[in-house]
Amino acid sequence: MRCQMVFCVVIGLLLTFNINFQDAVIFKFTNIVCESYNQSWVVFRYCRLKAVGRDRVHLNVNATILYPAYNITNHGKIFKRASGYKPWILDTTVDACRFVRKNYDPFAKIVFSLFKNFSNINHTCPFVGHQILKDFYLKPELLILPFPTGDYMLSMRWYFGKRLQFDTNVSFVFVEDLIKS
Ligand SMILES: *[C@@H]1O[C@H](CO)[C@@H](O)[C@H](O)[C@H]1NC(C)=O
Ligand SMILES: *[C@@H]1O[C@H](CO)[C@@H](O)[C@H](O)[C@H]1NC(C)=O
Ligand SMILES: *[C@@H]1O[C@H](CO)[C@@H](O)[C@H](O)[C@H]1NC(C)=O
Ligand SMILES: *[C@@H]1O[C@H](CO)[C@@H](O)[C@H](O)[C@H]1NC(C)=O
Ligand SMILES: *[C@@H]1O[C@H](CO)[C@@H](O)[C@H](O)[C@H]1NC(C)=O
Ligand SMILES: *[C@@H]1O[C@H](CO)[C@@H](O)[C@H](O)[C@H]1NC(C)=O
């Protein structure tokens, strides 16, 4: 009898937690910076955020790659804001062409899963022409990593061959409020 009670309370708490977790999570873009370092290979036509609701911000990007890129490397790094952005946990270099064939990098896989349905970037190398992200917003349910509440920046620096071609640095806020009901 008593054990059953405890069991019920635990299940009740889990359910409540779960519901609150879904309700209270905020995961949205706060800033985006795209910069090409070689306008004769990569041109950004636009790269911007648009608030479409209290907790939803859309990211739209239109970039053109003027010549095919066969060898693309991404250097990804996460910073967490604590009186200025400080490097936080992740610093990874991914062979993007190998990644789109093999999905080999677990972190890139999470990032890719967040945006692939909003883009035309889901294919193998080479990459050429218009690269589009349309009305991309962040879905907390796709984020399988436990993130503490905070302001973050994910810096992605893109190399073709050995040379840096462009940066896409995106900032976002994550609020995991389990107490608010
Ligand atoms: C810039 O892009 C051009 C055109 O693709 C390329 O030939 C050149 O090597 C690139 N320069 C750098 C510094 O990456
Ligand atoms: C992206 O920009 C190019 C011109 O640079 C334009 O032709 C194309 O229609 C644009 N696509 C979108 C979805 O905005
Ligand atoms: C992406 O779209 C496909 C097909 O519409 C859907 O089955 C899938 O659940 C979507 N994935 C995400 C991560 O939203
Ligand atoms: C592109 O997306 C489709 C449908 O979501 C998926 O079946 C396919 O494996 C993806 N291709 C790559 C290269 O990720
Ligand atoms: C993107 O972030 C990196 C830090 O990893 C920084 O060095 C770089 O200057 C930033 N790029 C832009 C265009 O702000
Ligand atoms: C890509 O470029 C890097 C740097 O130039 C080089 O070390 C690497 O072998 C190249 N990879 C492929 C698949 O061409």
TrEMBL record:
Keywords: Signal. This is MD-2-related lipid-recognition domain-containing protein. It comes from the Eukaryota. Residues 1-24 form the signal peptide.
